[in-house]
Specification:
The chain is built from 10 helices and 8 strands. It is an alpha/beta fold and 271 residues long. Helix 1 runs parallel beside helix 2, helix 4 crosses helix 5 and helix 5 packs across helix 6. Bound molecules: adenosine monophosphate, zinc ion (ZN) and fe (iii) ion (2 copies).
Length: 271
């Protein structure tokens, strides 16, 4: 029995709803999934409810972005207490930060002669977490650019004239937040981090697992992370990082999975 422990929904930047994810997971024979949207837990409850109906185990999760010297890293948090107010307050703070930042990017675009309405960007983002892909889509609608890629290449890609970085946590803060909310912090897709990470500092901060299996990892790289996790006593996790059709990420649901025993490992670890 296999589990896909890294999945996005329309509650962040995925294109399938939590319910759709659950039926798809069931139809391809997965026994368990984790919903791990960016900076939000909103997809968890609907997925758990749908999972109960279809007899599919749904593990609460989240993916937090953090900033360190080598760039952006992502920390997955599993089995977080959905009712922990302090954690939920932090998440709304992140959301407000994204709104303020979007307004700044729109101002910068205006300085470059491009007019985009904030409300339109908000509309496009729907229930998802407001970000540059939505801004790119709004720009595309105005006809000022020919593709969303052009928006990134010319205006809103990292370091481009209308780019504004968003508020980010340090990896240690992200780990501590997750632990304080009763969750299990796991380093997401370590192979996507620019400089090879030595997880020692993250382990000291309370990291509990390493996502060894991910579409961005070659077989060799996954094997390397499995060895590293074993040597460091970390839980070995994995998932597809599925975002649904139409997203730039090209994987399919269930492309990377782990045995369901990993779910038990996470449960045993959760405080
Ligand atoms: P944000 O969280 O608002 O900074 O947006 C990040 C998202 O924008 C990423 O998940 C990608 O989907 C997209 N993105 C970032 N940089 C680029 C780029 N150079 N080309 C295309 N998409 C990008
Ligand atoms: Zn995403
Ligand atoms: Fe990620
Ligand atoms: Fe992800």
């Amino acid at each position: 029995m296999r589990a896909d422990l890294h999945i996005h929904t329309t509650c962040s930047d995925g294109t399938k709803s939590p319910e759709e994810i659950v039926s798809l997971a069931k139809s391809i024979g997965l026994a368990a999934i984790a919903i791990t949207d960016h900076d939000t837990l909103e997809g968890v409850e609907p997925a758990v409810t749908a999972g109960r109906r279809l007899n599919l185990e749904v593990i609460p999760g989240i993916e937090l972005s953090a900033e360190c010297d080598s760039g952006e890293i992502h920390i997955l948090g599993y089995l977080i207490d959905l009712n922990q107010q302090e954690f939920l307050d932090k998440l709304s703070l992140f959301r407000q930060g994204r709104i303020d930042r979007m307004k700044k990017m729109i101002d910068k675009l205006r300085d470059h002669g491009l007019e985009v309405q904030f409300n339109r960007v908000l509309e496009i983002s729907g229930s998802g977490s407001l970000g540059r892909p939505h801004l790119a889509a709004a720009l595309l609608e105005t006809g000022a650019i020919k593709s969303t890629q052009e928006a990134f290449d010319r205006f809103i890609g990292n370091g481009k004239p209308a780019y504004v970085p968003r508020f980010k946590l340090s990896p240690e803060e992200a780990i501590q937040l997750i632990r304080a909310a009763g969750g299990v912090p796991v380093l997401a897709h370590p192979g996507m981090i620019e400089s090879t990470p030595t997880p020692d500092e993250l382990i000291t901060a309370g990291l509990a697992g390493l996502e060894a299996y991910h579409p961005a990892h070659s077989r060799e790289l996954s094997a390397y992370y499995v060895r590293l996790a074993r040597a460091k006593g970390l839980i070995i996790t994995g998932g597809s990082d599925y975002h649904g059709p139409g997203h730039t990420g090209r994987c399919r649901l269930g492309s990377d999975t782990v045995p369901c025993e990993v779910v038990s490992d996470l449960r045993k670890y959760a405080p």
